[in-house]
Amino acid sequence: MTVTPGWYMALAAVLFVIGTGGMLLRRNALVMFMSVELMLNAVNLTFVAAGRELGVVEGQLAVLFVMVVAAAEVVVGLAIIVAVFRRRKTASVDELSGLKG
Amino acid sequence: MVELVLFIIFAVAAVFGAVTMIWARNPVYSAMGLMLTMFSIAVFYVSNGAHFIAAVQVIIYAGAVMTLFLFVIMLIGVDKAESRTENLPLQRPVALALMILFGAGVVIAGRSAWVTGITPAGTVPVNGSIEQIGDKLFNEWLLPFEVTALLLIIAAAGAIALAFFRDEEGQG
Q1: What is the CA radius of gyration of chain A?
Q2: What DSSP designation does B126 have?
Q3: Which of the following CATH numbers is that of domain A5-88: 3.30.9.10, 1.20.58.100, 3.40.50.11460, 1.10.287.3510?
Q4: Interface of B with A in 20-49 (CB under 8 A)
Q5: Chain A contact for B132 (CB, 8 A cutoff)
Q6: Which residues of A touch B4 (CB under 8 A)?
Q7: Tell me, what DSSP letter sits at residue B50?
Q8: Based on CB atoms within 10 Å of each CB, which residue in A75, B59, B110, B118 is the most buried?
Q9: Total Cβ atoms within 10 A of residue A56
């Protein structure tokens, strides 16, 4: 039994769905952010697997760019979480209802 | 055969880490679960021939990004464990239904055959060495690469602005 790229894609789909679930179910802003990172990682895995399937190296380049964007996103997102925490003393998104209509 | 064993071990580890991440109340355990998943994904990169990407994954994700997460957890504090009661009545069932629907959609999409322009090379791993990646990156993808530098500078400036300029009287 050989491991084909489809196996990795199936695993990446499972990880992506778990990440979506974390995004929808948790209310701690940090854990929601980690869920986003998990989803990005799952997509990166599909890029690498697809690149192997097609025999091209561009899949890995796409992963490199996704990683840069994810790093920028982490920096800004965590800074926002810390700024919100300093002001509101909470990281729970349920209590950040200042814009509620 | 080696790849099969590695796949099974680290697939279990990755899913376990991901479930731990969304299940644990303590954010530190969540971060540890995510770190386990990222290491497992680095192993998958190696078995797919993406050696450089695997190294970058370990250094950037499992190293830098998770350290940043742990720093922020340390700043914010872990003592306030999140209660599991949900304020919105329909949130949980709808979220679970959407997860199942999405998973089903992925399965259906995965069972279809997608036609691509290039002949599949089969299961031979691509050589993802630094030479190969650098060659492509600095020849064909130079402009996107430069744009990422701009993006990183903007992100760093934005983070500094968020950290420095605080509203003194605003409380709310």
Answers
A1: 17
A2: P
A3: 1.10.287.3510
A4: 21-22, 27, 30-31, 34, 37-38, 41, 44-45, 47-49
A5: yes
A6: 1-3
A7: -
A8: A75
A9: 15
Neighboring chain A residues of B96 at a CB cutoff of 8 Å? 21
- The pair phi, psi for residue B26, each rounded to 5°, is -75, 125
Q: What is the pLDDT of residue A7?
A: 85
Q: Inspect the interface and report whether the beta carbons of A73 and B154 lie closer than 8 Å.
A: no
Tell me how many degrees the CA angle B89-A27-B160 measures, rounded to the nearest 5. 145
pTM of the predicted model, to two decimals? 0.87
Q: Give the range among B50-54, B76-80, B143-147 with minimum mean pLDDT.
A: B76-80
Q: At CB < 8 A and 24+ separation, what contacts does B137-145 make?
A: B137/A61, B137/A64, B141/A61, B144/A65
- The distance from CA A99 to its chain's CA centroid, rounded to whole angstroms, is 26
Report the pLDDT value the prediction gives residue B120, as an integer from 0 to 100.
52
Per-domain residue ranges of chain A = 5-88
Contact B49 A52 (CB under 8 A): yes
> CB distance from B120 to chain A under 8 Å?
yes
Name the helix (H) or strand (E) containing B38: helix B27-47
**Least confident span in B108-112, B125-129, B137-141:** B125-129
- The position carrying tokens 């790093």 is A71
Q: Does B57 touch chain A (CB under 8 A)?
A: yes
By CB atoms closer than 10 A (0-12, 13-18, 19+), residue A19 is buried
Residues in chain B closer than 8 A to A72 (CB atoms): 151-152, 154-155
